[in-house]
Amino acid sequence: MSAGSANLASFIAGQKGHNFTFYTEYGLRKQYASVENFIRKRSFIDMDYVYDTLSNHDGENPLDYASLKDNPTEFVVGSANAITGEVKYFDKRDIRQDVYDIFKVSASIPFVCKPYFIQGVTYYDGALGDPVPIEKAFALGCDRVIVLLTKPENVLRTSESDEKLAAFVRKKYPNAAEKLRQRARRYNEGVALAQEYARQGKALIVAPDDICGVSTLSRNPTDLKRLYDKGYADGEKI
Questions:
Q1: How many C-beta neighbours within 10 Å does residue 117 have?
Q2: I want to staple 123 with a disulfide (CB 3.0 to 4.6 A). Which of 105, 146, 166, 221 is the partner?
Q3: Facing residues of 129 across strands?
Q4: What phi and psi, each to the nearest 5 degrees, are found at residue 58?
């Protein structure tokens, strides 16, 4: 979900380090994320700048769409219907050269970002619908699942920030707001389920033991580089 979908796309396309530049260099640009964006476009992060201007074939740092498409690895991205709050899954059939709308919807945090349209339907961040989609992975036919967490495994998510964001979108998107209010509980339940599958040998949980001061909208290159390097070191241990 969220930026994870873009990270996975670059991984499948074989573009090692591709997204690191987005976080540590482009993320500092006001066109990428700024209060000005929020005032002008009702979205702190301009997903059109990220997934069109920068990522298109003629952009500054294009996604290798041909390699993504030709790689036989399955690719599924989650989002949440802004009207109903229900989860919606997209796959490679929903991507074309320079049409990366599924990444936009998957990363659109309510209030922080506006919802995006796909075929006339508005969508928000996939974490609203299915924050830890391990059951979906098994339903798709996986026999063992790698669960990548952005928080330490035993750190419970709290709902304080979600409650605040939900209040801003409740009038226009009441169902999405309610799903946002439930996100912490559903995330914690999802991690607990993953831990049970891990005990059964059906899942491998990969999670940082320290997030190095980085949060969802962090833009400090030093902290991001520290977490990036730590990720590699932790991965080597596994």
A1: 13
A2: 105
A3: none
A4: -105, 15
Dihedral of the alpha carbons of 106, 108, 110, 115, in degrees to the nearest 10: -90
- Residue 15: Cβ-neighbour burial (10 angstroms; 0-12, 13-18, 19+): middle
pLDDT, tens digit (0-9, with 9 covering 90-100), for 63-108 = 999 999 999 999 999 999 999 999 999 999 999 999 999 999 999 9
Residue ranges of the alpha helices (H) in the chain?
A: 3-12, 18-24, 35-41, 47-48, 65-70, 101-106, 134-139, 160-169, 174-199, 221-237
What 8-state DSSP symbol labels residue 96?
B
User: How far, in Å, CA of 164 to CA of 94, rounded?
Assistant: 32
CB of 91 closer than 8 Å to CB of 74: yes
Q: CB of 178 within 8 A of CB of 83?
A: no
pLDDT in tens, 179-226: 999 999 999 999 999 999 999 999 999 999 888 888 888 888 899 999
CB 115 within 8 A of CB 169: no
